[in-house]
Every structure is written in structure tokens, then in C-alpha cells.
Design goal:
alpha/beta, seven-stranded mixed beta sheet, Peptidase_M55, DppA_N, M55 family metallopeptidase, Peptidase_M55_sf
Length: 274
């Protein structure tokens, strides 16, 4: 049995603000260690329950945050920024389940450092469903018939997961007070919770179904200003919905939609605000 773990950073235990998740800031090295410890807690519980292979995908920012020399020696790591499927790179039908760790709430929702991919995104819609990173990644997993078994992060991420994925196990390691403050577990207690919840999720594995996207999904990304929408609409196949900052893309499947989203958000970041 193979398990896939996508590890973001904003939802890691004890991290309240950008000084922990920006590689140029003073708290970043502390956060990398806690992030790696949490990946290890999940991997350890998986191996103890009989999982033979664990693949960990570093999924935050430049995606080179996890400390490979401190990672569980039996886990494999995907690290580095240029990945065609970004936060779910190399996830495929061979995995029995996926874990999203260190995740946060989508843009515009209560939760520590809540956002969706870039700060220029207000909402992403798959047909009529609003998704953040968590939901979009879960749809990609579902494309490969892989259920998301466990979501760990702040309470906002856990609520979002429970609303989208029936039966998913969640592990809230911190409670948001505001977008930049939290009430948090100690890392040792958080790691114990992650192990407990990973064990529970594997025991419930057959009862948790993959999240399936609609066929030929219509993806609509609402940006915060018109300049971002203009840049995103430069991608072939995209149109701006008149009178809005929403860019529409009709995809053949959720994988094409996901890759289009990556390109559109990269283009949108070219917008100048001065």
C-alpha cells in the first residue's frame, strides 16, 4: 500500500504569521523543523499501520522547505518548485490514499494566513463549487480515484475539508484567533494527534470516497483587480466575463483545469500596482 502526503506550511503547528513561512524572515528556519517533524509523525504512523511506501511532496512556496536530512528515512521526497502538478505532483492511481498536512483555509475565509494560491485570487469555482487549494487538490486526487483520508492544519482548513469530503478525518493542530494569530497545541502534542488521526484515517480508508470533479469542468477564477484578470486571460482559451474580474476556462478534465490555474495565477502575478 502506498500513501501520498502533500505538505503545505501555513497550517503547521505554532505558525501564526508570514514571518514563519517566508524564507527571508527570521522565524522560517524554526518553521521548517516543525514542518518536517509533522511530516515524520504522519509517515511514522503510516508505516506502523502497514503502509509500504510513503511519498512526501513539499507543497509550500518554492517547495524546498522540508529538511531532507531530517525526514523519515523510509519516506521519499519531492522537492523543488517547477512541477507540472505543483502541490499534487506525482499523485496517481497507484496510491491508496492521500494526506494534506499543514493546510489552510481558502481565500476570504476565517483562518490563519488564509488564501488561495496567490493573494490576487478571491475565489476559484469548479462549475458552481468554490474551492481553495485543498478542494482543487482533492479533485485532482479524485481524478486518479485516490481518496483524501486525512487533512491536518488550522481549524478553518479542517472545516473546509469536512464540508467537501464526506468522512474525511481531520486533525486541527491550532485554532485561529485572527488571520495572523492562533491558539496552538505544543508540537509534541500535535505530533501525537497527527499519529492518532493518521491511524484512524487508515482504518477508515475504505469508507472514504474520492472527491470527483464534474466532466469537462468550467473553471472560473475571480481576481482582486482587473489587471490580474487581463494578465490571466492572456492564456489561450481564457475569457474575462464582462463587467467582472472573473476569468473563465473550459477544460477537458480537472487536470487541464489545474494546470491552467497554475499558468493563470503565474501570469496574474505580473500585474503592477504602482
Amino acid at each position: 500500500m502506498k500513501l501520498y502526503i502533500s505538505v503545505d506550511m501555513e497550517g503547521i503547528t505554532g505558525l501564526p504569521d508570514e514571518s514563519f513561512v517566508d524564507s527571508h524572515r527570521h522565524n522560517y528556519e524554526r518553521a521548517r523543523k516543525i514542518m518536517t517533524q509533522e511530516a515524520n509523525a504522519i509517515a511514522s504512523a503510516a508505516f506502523e499501520k502497514g503502509v509500504q511506501e510513503v511519498l512526501v511532496n513539499d507543497s509550500h512556496s518554492k517547495m524546498n522547505n522540508l529538511l531532507v536530512e531530517e525526514l523519515h528515512p523510509d519516506a521519499e521526497l519531492i522537492t523543488g518548485e517547477m512541477k507540472p502538478l505543483s502541490m499534487v505532483q506525482s499523485l496517481d492511481h497507484t496510491f491508496a490514499g492521500a494526506v494534506f498536512a499543514g493546510y489552510h483555509a481558502r481565500a476570504g475565509q476565517p483562518g490563519v494566513m488564509s488564501h488561495t494560491m496567490i493573494f490576487g485570487v478571491r475565489n476559484i469555482y469548479i462549475n458552481d463549487v468554490v474551492v481553495g487549494e485543498l478542494g482543487f487538490n482533492a479533485y485532482v486526487a479524485g481524478h486518479f480515484d485516490v481518496p483524501v483520508l486525512l487533512v491536518a492544519g488550522d481549524d478553518g482548513a479542517c472545516r473546509e475539508a469536512e464540508a467537501l469530503i464526506p468522512g474525511v478525518v481531520t486533525a486541527p493542530v491550532k485554532q485561529s484567533i485572527s488571520r495572523s494569530s492562533v491558539k496552538t497545541l505544543h508540537p509534541i502534542k500535535a505530533q501525537a494527534l497527527l499519529k492518532e488521526k493518521m491511524t484512524e484515517a487508515l482504518e477508515k480508508r475504505t469508507a472514504i470516497k474520492p472527491l470527483k470533479a464534474p466532466e469537462n469542468p468550467v473553471m472560473r477564477i475571480e481576481f482582486t483587480n482587473y489587471g490580474e484578470a487581463e494578465w490571466a486571460a492572456m492564456m489561450p482559451g481564457c475569457v474575462i466575463e464582462e463587467g467582472t474580474t472573473i476569468v473563465r476556462f473550459e477544460a477537458k478534465d480537472i487536470i487541464e483545469a489545474y494546470r491552467a490555474m497554475l499558468v493563470m495565477t503565474e501570469l496574474a502575478m505580473q500585474t503592477k500596482f504602482c
